[in-house]
Amino acid sequence: MSIQYEAPLADSYGVADSFPKDFGYGEEEGDIEDSPTPSDSKPRILLMGLRRSGKSSIQKVVFHKMSPNETLFLESTNKIYKDDISSSSFVNFQIWDFPGQVDFFDPTFDYEMIFRGTGALIFVIDAQDDYVEALGRLHLTVSRAYRVNPEINFEVFIHKVDGLSDDHKIETQRDIHQRANDDLADASLEKLHLSFYLTSIYDHSIFEAFSKVVQKLIPQLPTLENLLNIFISNSGIEKAFLFDVVSKIYIATDSSPVDMQSYELCCDMIDVVIDVSCIYGLKEDGTGSAYDKESMAIIKLNNTTVLYLKEVTKFLALVCILREESFERKGLIDYNFHCFRKAIHEVFEVGVSTSRTSTQPAGTPLMKTVALNGTPRSTV
Ligand SMILES: Nc1nc2c(ncn2[C@@H]2O[C@H](COP(=O)(O)OP(=O)(O)OP(=O)(O)O)[C@@H](O)[C@H]2O)c(=O)[nH]1
Fold first, then answer.
1. Per-residue DSSP letters for 242-275?
2. Is 74 in the pocket of ligand 1 (CB under 6 A)?
3. From the CB of 162, is ligand 1 less than 6 Å away?
4. Is ipTM beyond 0.95?
5. What are the boundaries of the region Disordered (predicted)?
């Protein structure tokens, strides 16, 4: 494997373990503004579930680069932990990690306010444990939330599946799916849709699941997918992912099916690029950024596959998978990429100006749409 690597200038970040929260490359002309939304009114993604189901671990591994083994030492969460990831991520939202047992009857717990501003509710079920109690809790939580805000996306993570055999995984998913939907049918809540994912922090499944959760909240997803389709079909590229670099969530991909291996390969490439950049990309005086406008990398694998990464915005990178022979037309690919990048910036600039002109009456609840760094703010 050869790596042709153009190291971007790195900031005073440490190595991979202490990955920066903010890549820190400054505003440029036409750069996308940070959201002026006060943090408490930002749309949110809630992480709920029984104690020790793995909520804090998911949040730390996906958004804070914690290694899965370190989560063994996480202490139990005792109050709602609000994590505002908008300064480091394309996705301009808050993640609220709830303590295991939320008491809906506690008068200090204003669940109506919480659910009103929620885009997605992720309910985490520990698949290695007896999940009967968790299913009861799931039902109570989603039915309450649905009554307050039927626009919420309800996502169920059947978590810690690394401990299960393949057959057992499928059987567990089928059983949980069946029971959860039976409970909803009994309560005449058939319209409430639950989506299920098998997840583990020990592989890429948690990033893949989070990607899907976030994609549902991106209003411009069809436009992004279209742009990716046009880009790859005119450039001889097999697969392209638009990544939020810090979290490795892919916010869009072309319409060909995603196979887990390709996704993992692209995630690994981002890790390599950022790690090398953090170690060798520093200026002598320690200034610079681990990810900036110059960031790009080409990795040629021994099976005639090429991985090509390029910066799109402050938070986003395009990672493509293509054959070596297609890469011979690198000039064409680069030209098409230039057009693609310009189009993405235009989508976001239109978004920002739309949000500047749109007025939202005071007190209007923020609904489903999650605001993005560089995309329209919530307009409901
Ligand atoms: N095997 C396995 N263990 C996991 C996984 N995710 C989390 N864990 C472990 O589960 C335990 C509990 O994780 P936490 O993240 O603290 O759980 P929590 O839901 O936030 O717990 P509370 O704060 O008490 O509500 C830790 O020991 C984690 O290492 C996973 O995907 N697989």
1. EEETTTTEEEEE-SSPP-HHHHHHHHHHHHHHHH
2. yes
3. yes
4. yes
5. 14-43
